[in-house]
Design a protein that fits this description.
By secondary structure, the chain is an all-alpha fold. The protein has nine helices and no strands. It is about 85% helix and about 0% strand.
């Protein structure tokens, strides 16, 4: 009976937490029109979440593309279809690896930065001071960071996919000897608009989810050093699970 009680209580706590996140999301959405009047705040956060993540995104995209080039060539060689390497790598990157791996890297770099920054502001009473001065911290601090992350994520996913395709071409054409014309023509023929749309939708959903989790955990962090650390850890773990969960749902929906 105790086990059943604990499971039931855990379920209730999870539902309460989900409801709190949804309410917080609607607060952010309601404040977006007011924040857009000061778009410079959003641009600064796009730079913070996106431009500062470019190095890790580009390096990861290059190496993931190179691994795809190696593994894809070995697999396709068994069936005598090495020329299809371009299509296989591009479809895998655009539809799946690009959005998912970018979201995981985004959560680890930008998401933790957002959560720790807001958590530190909570711990040092900066958010409370804004409320005392009749400044809404949601509009002034939280929503610009949320929008910055949500805008930066699809751009980073596109860059990841482009660099990954270059990495696959580098291995497949320059090292494995696949014909360059066949590589690019197969890629153009194998990737259609539906594949690109699926990748765009996934990157947008993942960007909103990761940014929401980061700002929620940071804003509601316990105002201690340990609390900020726990909020940062929860941001990474929860973002990874949510990204993979949404990835399955979206993949099934597009099929």
């Amino acid at each position: 009976m105790n086990v059943i009680k604990e499971l039931w209580q855990s379920l209730l706590d999870s539902l309460v937490g989900l409801g709190a996140v949804v309410r917080f999301f609607f607060r952010l959405v309601i404040s977006i029109p007011a924040v857009l009047l000061r778009f410079d705040l959003v641009v600064a956060q796009v730079w913070n979440a996106g431009a500062l993540s470019l190095v890790i995104i580009m390096l990861s995209g290059l190496f993931v593309g190179m691994v795809l080039g190696l593994q894809g060539f070995q697999l396709l060689q068994r069936f005598g279809s090495e020329e299809a390497l371009g299509a296989a790598a591009a479809v895998g990157l655009v539809k799946e690896l690009g959005p998912v791996v970018t979201a995981l890297l985004f959560a680890g770099r930008a998401g933790t930065a957002l959560a720790s920054e807001l958590g530190l502001m909570r711990a040092t009473d900066q958010l409370s001071a804004m409320e005392m001065m009749a400044v809404d911290p949601i509009k002034r601090v939280v929503t610009p960071r949320f929008l910055g992350g949500a805008i930066a994520m699809p751009l980073l996913a596109a860059i990841f996919s482009l660099i990954g395709i270059y990495g696959a071409q580098l291995i497949g054409v320059q090292i494995m000897g696949v014909d360059s014309g066949s590589f690019w023509s197969q890629m153009r023929g194998g990737v259609d608009l539906a594949d690109i749309n699926e990748g765009i939708v996934k990157s947008i959903v993942f960007g909103v989810a990761c940014s929401l989790i980061a700002v929620y955990e940071g804003y509601h962090a316990t105002p201690t050093a340990a609390g900020v650390g726990r909020a940062t850890t929860r941001t990474v773990v929860t973002s990874a699970v949510v990204v993979l969960f949404f990835d399955y749902l979206l993949t099934a929906a597009f099929l």
